Amino acid sequence: MRDVRVPWVRPDQLGDYRLNRLGDGGQGVVYGVPCPPDRLPGTNLAFKEYKAPVDADVLHDMCCFLDLISGRDRAFLEARLAWPVAMVYTGRSPTAPPPTANPGTVVVGFLMNRVTGEFELSSPKLGETKLQALEFLLNGDDYETQIGLHVDDAQRLRFLIDLAHTLDRLHRQQVTVGDLSPKNVMFTLAGRGRCLLIDCDSMRYRGRNVLAQVETTGWEVPEAEKGTVTSDSYKFGLIALRLFNRSQDGTDHAPLRDVSTELANLALRSRSIEPHRRPAPAEWLPALELAESRLTSGRSTARPRAATATPRPAAAPSPQPVPAAVRVPTAPPGPHRAGAGAGWAPAPPSAPVPVGGSRSSGRVTGTVVVLAVLALLGYGLVDRVMSSDGSDDTPSSADSGNPYGASRDDSGSEPGSRDTDEPVSGRAEAPGATVDYSQAAGEPRAKEVAAMFARFFGAINQRDYDKALSYYDPATTAVDLESGASRDKWKEVMSTTKDSRLVLSDLDTSGKYTFATMNFRSRQSPGYGPAGRPNDTCDDWTVTYQLTRTSGFRIFKAPRDGVSYAPC
Question: Which of 7, 295, 339, 423 can pair with 86 through a Cys bridge, CB separation 3.0 to 4.6 Å?
């Protein structure tokens, strides 16, 4: 396995961050980073400054984590974790890992990506924009309506499905959440919904802890050992129960049984005092997906609910003066964890970004145009947009047709490091573009795949759009190659785009399809940016493409969990 280089930075390289205080907990203070150095990953970053020493070696290993897993798992988890991405230190500059091997170097915190606008809730009832934490959903329907949340049981099930997939992928990589509670889990209702886990430095990483394990009051496990797969399973069952109880602390199984007897039985097993008897999150998925399918197709066997839980009064505003940028969840109060880590950091206000972040044109409307817009660079998210009428049933993963793809343990796979200081051992060149495939050079097909992408992106940069379209599989769902109107709309969207910094960071040819992860920077005219930020003129993308072999490699689409971006 290749070494992964973790970025190190001093506090004085982050700009005047102390003027942008975002949150304060028992373990540390979180600040917005106004001026991150160019070499750091991401642009909307936050700095968590610890109040006391921590296990810096474990924190360093956590910063390596996303570079040590497959491109598909990384794309999925990056969109669902506020994960540490860089180390912050004072004293002598480090010369080699681990941190404890550097006398005179003191780790004082870490950098992470800030929470984006899709996980925020703006409501006159609340008085200010808040983080959209899970605790908002643990209240009666009347209260949720008052604050502008309109959530039905199908959406609750989709949230649980996404959370179960997230926990399953983490568990397969030997990461456990530990303090899985309503204040550490955010949600968005955009698309099919998605979760976001914060306070990630409090998770147990492959059996080791940065910080001592703590639990939120009312969410404790009965056994002494914390931060295990079975403790996560216990708390996942509590989340399912309380979501359908509309309650911060209820454990009545009847509301969940009204939705699905099998789900109620899983919840009952999850609360076993014998940890080994609890169902893992993945074991919930068939029952969750069946219940959601029944609800959305109108075939639910659920009985009418007699009444929802009575909403608790909203928490009083904090008496401390805080900047407007602070986003503190103030749903009807759930229990507060002593010594909370303040490990979240909201992004500056922005329009919600639908899952997948596909680009869109500000000039065109209608279903045909939506399909064309989502076709951009193979961002095949048509299955999500068209799911309301079921008109697209193309599988989005090679092995199961599951939109989340198959979770697997890739701890020994080639890392997808993006460190630009590494020597380049492979380049594929074509007129208009060059693709660096050094990070995937261990794959025998890397050169061939990189050459296809060089020709594809090069054709876009040189505005030879018919040539670019020739690199799609004839059966692609991303664009109707037989329709002149569809091709023309695709060309219109692409007409202002130029892509650079092209890197093939991961390649998997082991299944029916080939999955190739590309990192690149796009520049485009205002109005042609991502769906949630149409006026962006520069974005950094990570896209995992699903490829086929039809007269060479061709683009089929990009599964919905394989697309993410950040503004430059």
Answer: 7
Q: Given pLDDT bands bounded at 50, 70 and 90, which one contains residue 316?
A: very low
Mapping DSSP onto H, E and C, the string for 549-561 reads ECCCEEEEECCHH
Q: For the ranges 244-258, 337-351, 362-376, which has the lowest average pLDDT? A: 362-376
Residue partners of 178: CB distance under 8 A and separation at least 6? 202, 203, 204, 213, 214, 215, 226, 227, 231, 232
- DSSP per residue, 433-446: EEEE-GGGTTSTTH
Say how many CA atoms lie within 13 Å of 469 toward its Cβ: 22
| Count, residues in the chain | 568
How many whole angstroms separate alpha carbon 463 and alpha carbon 544? 23
Q: What is the pLDDT of residue 527?
A: 79
DSSP secondary structure letter of residue 100: G
Confidence of residue 404 (pLDDT cuts 50, 70, 90): low
Look at 54-68, 117-131, 415-429, 481-495 and tell me which has the smallest mean pLDDT.
415-429
| Beta pairing partners, 434 | 429
Measure the CA–CA gap between 383 and 396, rounded to whole angstroms.
8
Q: From 545, 547, 549, select the one nearest 377 (Cα to Cα).
A: 545
The DSSP H or E segment spanning 143 is helix 141-146
For residue 380, pLDDT beyond 90: no
CA distance 6 to 444: 27
Domains of the chain: 8-115 (3.30.200), 118-296 (1.10.510.10), 367-567 (3.10.450.50)
Contact 442, 414 (CB under 8 A): yes
Contact 331, 136 (CB under 8 A): yes
The H-or-E segment that residue 164 falls in is helix 153-172
b/e map of 520-535 (b: 16 or more CB within 10 Å)?
bbbbbeeebbbbbbbe
pTM for the model stands at 0.59
| 174-226 pLDDT tens trace | 999 999 999 999 999 988 889 999 999 999 999 999 999 999 999 999 999 99
Q: Residue 348, Cβ neighbours under 10 Å: how many?
A: 11
Tell me what pLDDT residue 166 has: 97
Record the tokens describing residue 18, joined without a space.
Answer: 């102390």
Best-predicted range by mean pLDDT (251-260, 349-358, 393-402, 503-512): 251-260
265 vs 5: which has the higher pLDDT: 265
